Amino acid sequence: MKYRSFALAGTVVGLCGVCLNIAAMLFIIYGSNESSVSYRMICLPWSSDLACGFSSVFVVYSSAAWILTIVFIAFICNILSGQLAQLTYDFTETFGGVTNFEAKLLDTFRRNFNILRRSVELADDMLSPLIAFAYCTHIPGMIFLLYQVVSGGTGISYTLIASFWIMGSSVNLAIISYFAVTVHEKAHSLRRHVHDLQTETFDPEIAQIQMLFLARLDGPEIGMTALGCFVITKERVLAVISTLITYFTILLQFKGLCSDDVNAMATANVSTTTDIYTT
C-alpha cells in the first residue's frame, strides 16, 4: 500500500512538473515579445510556423521523458530500499540479544539478501543507462544555463525560464542521487548486525555462513550505478555538488573581474577623451 501511495504521489508531482515545463517551452516559442522567427531557436533548423507547430507536439513527449523517467527511477529505488530496510529490521528483531540460534535461520537471511542483491543488479542493468544519461545531460545543462544567467545580456523572460530549468535539473539530480544513495545505504546496513552476531558455543556451520554473509557485504559495493562505471554513493554525490559549487564560485569571481576591467576601460576612455578636448 505504501508503494502505491508513493507511486501515485510521484506521478501527480511529475505530471505537474511536465505541465510547467510544457508551459515554459511554449512561452519561449510563442509567448514572449522576442518570439519572432529569428528567436525561435527551439525550432531550428526550420523556424517556420509549421515547424514550430510540430515542435510543440514533441515538447509534450520530451517533457514527459525528462521528468517521468525520474519518477520511475525513484519508484524502483524506493521499492528496493524498502525491501532491504525490511530485511535489516527482521534480522535485528530475530537475532537481537539472541546467542542461541540455528544455522539454518541465519542461512535463510543470507539467501534472502542474495535475492535482493540480485534484484538490485537487475534493476541497475535496466536503469543505469537512464541514470548515466541524466547525469551527463543535467550537469552540463546546469553549467551552461548558470553561465547564461550570470553573464547577463538576455531578456527577463529567458532568465526566468533558464532559472526554472536550473531548478528543475537540480531537483531531478537530487531525486536520483537521494534514492540511489538510499539503496546503497540500505544494502550495506546489515554489515554491522552480521558482524555483531555472537553465539554461546562455537558452531562451525554458523561461522561458515557468517563468513559467507560478511564476504558479500564487505565485497563490491551494492547499489545503483551510472552505466556500471561507479556506484552512486553519498561521497560521490557530495563530490559532484562541491564541483558545481566551485564552478559557480569561479564564475561569479570571473564575472566580477570582467566588470572591473570594463569599468576601468570606460574610465580610461573618458579620461583620454577629456584630455584631447582640453588640449
UniProtKB/TrEMBL annotation:
<feature type="transmembrane region" description="Helical">
    <location>
        <begin position="156"/>
        <end position="181"/>
    </location>
</feature>
<dbReference type="GO" id="GO:0051606">
    <property type="term" value="P:detection of stimulus"/>
</dbReference>
<dbReference type="InterPro" id="IPR013604">
    <property type="entry name" value="7TM_chemorcpt"/>
</dbReference>
<keyword id="KW-0812">Transmembrane</keyword>
<dbReference type="GO" id="GO:0038023">
    <property type="term" value="F:signaling receptor activity"/>
</dbReference>
<dbReference type="GO" id="GO:0007606">
    <property type="term" value="P:sensory perception of chemical stimulus"/>
</dbReference>
<dbReference type="Pfam" id="PF08395">
    <property type="entry name" value="7tm_7"/>
</dbReference>
<feature type="transmembrane region" description="Helical">
    <location>
        <begin position="7"/>
        <end position="30"/>
    </location>
</feature>
<feature type="transmembrane region" description="Helical">
    <location>
        <begin position="58"/>
        <end position="80"/>
    </location>
</feature>
<keyword id="KW-1133">Transmembrane helix</keyword>
<protein>
    <recommendedName>
        <fullName>Gustatory receptor</fullName>
    </recommendedName>
</protein>
<dbReference type="GO" id="GO:0016020">
    <property type="term" value="C:membrane"/>
</dbReference>
<keyword id="KW-0472">Membrane</keyword>
<feature type="transmembrane region" description="Helical">
    <location>
        <begin position="127"/>
        <end position="150"/>
    </location>
</feature>
<keyword id="KW-0675">Receptor</keyword>
<dbReference type="GO" id="GO:0050909">
    <property type="term" value="P:sensory perception of taste"/>
</dbReference>
